[in-house]
Amino acid sequence: MSTTSQETGADITRRLGVRPIINAGGPNTMHSGSRPLQEAMDAMQAMSDVFVNIEELLIAAGKEIASLVGAEAATVTSGASGGLVVQAAAAVSKGDPEIVARLPLTDGLPNELVIQKRQRFSYDHLYLAPGTKFVEAGDDNECTPEQLEAAITPNTAAVIHLESPFRNRKVVQLPQAAEIAHAHGLPLMADAASMLPPRDHLRKFTSQGADLVSFSGGKAVRGPQSTGFLIGKPEWIEYARLVNAPNATVARAQKVSKEEVAGLLAALRVFVDVDEEAETTRYRRDMELVVDRIAEVPGTIVSVEHNYDHYIPHAVVKLTDSWRGPDGPELARRLMLGEHRVYVTSGYIGDDEIWIDPLNIQPGELETVASRVHEELVKAASEG
Ligand SMILES: *Cc1c(COP(=O)(O)O)cnc(C)c1O
């Protein structure tokens, strides 16, 4: 509870003329990420009372994160995206103060990042911010270990690996990619931004050989939207810290405030302690309710999905060959109109699916989500 402002969230959005949404599409940044835990908001408020040396705070926060998640070492970043910039910068500079100071100028240095072509993704240009460039391995259809290895040259600074829904098929898997990188004396840098839960992913990718793994603090961890963290090998975490904000480096624009650091730690402390089985059961029950409500629209198949590609149970609507209505993105657009604007995901892997993600659905909103999706599906089915 704020004591300094009488405004509610509804007041602020009304004053600005911005219409709120019901977020049934998951922790997507454009749709506000996730709701920070009360513990995170309280820690941010509390931390605003004190001044510290930020370097000392970041080192201590890194130690706390490492001990919370069971990693060798960790450090705070500005979102998982900030972690990608820092991974690349660390790979090129490896703690050398002269190189740290001159990035993004990389002339004469190994500055190539090997990435499997099938793993190229919409945020990967962040890896290029420190003056690096990609060398692609394999093609659009697959990448073999031989192709990955053949892309490595004396100019390679790191091998990049993505752990993300639908990006992990017909690619060299992380353990083998790490083995190949290490055989050439190179680090394996992994982006696992959205791969929590399950919580055992906090240890999995490093135990498989990744030297640095980037996670979001503002997705399911429910810390401040702007936060993230890297975990990994102590020497690589140190290289990452040296090239990260607040130091005067290529990553200086990626600052994280002491309040945000405290908020991330508070959220992580809660996150690692949650009974994941009970949490999953709750999400599954909610999604089964939605599935029951929207099932039996002709041309659709509705199911609860929970697997590598769906980090928590989702309600997934598949538009089948017999569907004659508009595609998924058009249905998603229509759901954002009307009195209750409902955000759902579509178009991520194809235009024939709609995903409903329970993470951000607030108490009392589930029925609205189900009835709006049902209403639009029934209307659209009759258009065919
Ligand atoms: C969400 C996401 C990011 C960005 O994470 P932020 O914490 O929002 O910066 C990067 N990579 C992947 C694969 C993601 O899913």
Can you walk me through this structure?
The protein is an alpha/beta fold and 384 residues long. It folds into two domains: 9-33 and 275-383, Aspartate Aminotransferase, domain 1; 38-271, 3-Layer(aba) Sandwich (Aspartate Aminotransferase, domain 2). 38% of the residues lie in helices and 17% in strands. It is built from 13 helices and 13 strands. The protein has helices at residues 9-16, 38-47, 54-69, 79-93, 97-102, 145-150, 174-183, 201-207, 234-243, 258-273, 276-294, 328-335, 366-381, and strands spanning 22-23, 73-77, 112-116, 133-137, 156-162, 188-191, 212-216, 228-232, 300-307, 310-319, 342-343, 345-346, 353-356. The strands form three sheets. A seven-stranded mixed beta sheet has the order 2-8-7-6-5-3-4, with helices on both faces. A four-stranded antiparallel beta sheet has the order 9-10-13-12. Helix 4 packs across helix 9 (234-243) and helix 11 packs parallel to helix 13 (366-381). The protein is globular. Pyridoxal-5'-phosphate binds at residues 29, 79-81, 123, 164, 191, 193-194, 216, 218, 228.
